[in-house]
Design goal:
Shape: globular
Order of helices and strands: EEEEEEEEEEE
Structural class: mainly beta
Number of helices: 0
């Protein structure tokens, strides 16, 4: 499974930003897709996840109600729409493929990070 994240950048606090993750490889649709982030000086943490089939979603409490994860099965992409962004959302964001979990070790496949910076 190969994952390619894109869409990071600089955004003002309160504004929106969207990330996208293109997934390819055998049996990619059998995996849960997740987004994690790592802020400077902190450990990588769970953000959101979604199943390819059925579209069940799960969110970290810190982003619930502000971030929306979605998938496009035809294009094999998973998107993360981030609204009402806060400076504390500044981090490198990673997409991952794995199991229904908020733990990093539940995801054996990772894309490269894409940097998101929120200015106050």
């Amino acid at each position: 499974v190969q994952l390619q994240a894109s869409g990071g950048g600089l955004v003002q606090a309160g504004g929106p930003l969207s990330l996208s993750c293109a997934a390819s490889g055998r049996s990619v649709s059998t995996y849960v897709m997740g987004w994690f982030r790592r802020a400077p000086g902190k450990e990588r943490e769970f953000v959101a996840s979604i199943t390819w089939r059925g579209g069940s979603t799960m969110y970290a409490d810190s982003v619930k109600g502000r971030f929306t994860i979605s998938r496009d099965n035809a294009k094999n992409t998973v998107n993360l729409r981030m609204d009402r962004m806060k400076p504390e959302d500044t981090a490198a964001y990673y997409c991952a493929a794995g199991t229904w979990s908020q733990r990093q070790d539940g995801y054996p496949y990772w894309g490269q990070g894409t940097q998101v910076t929120v200015s106050s």
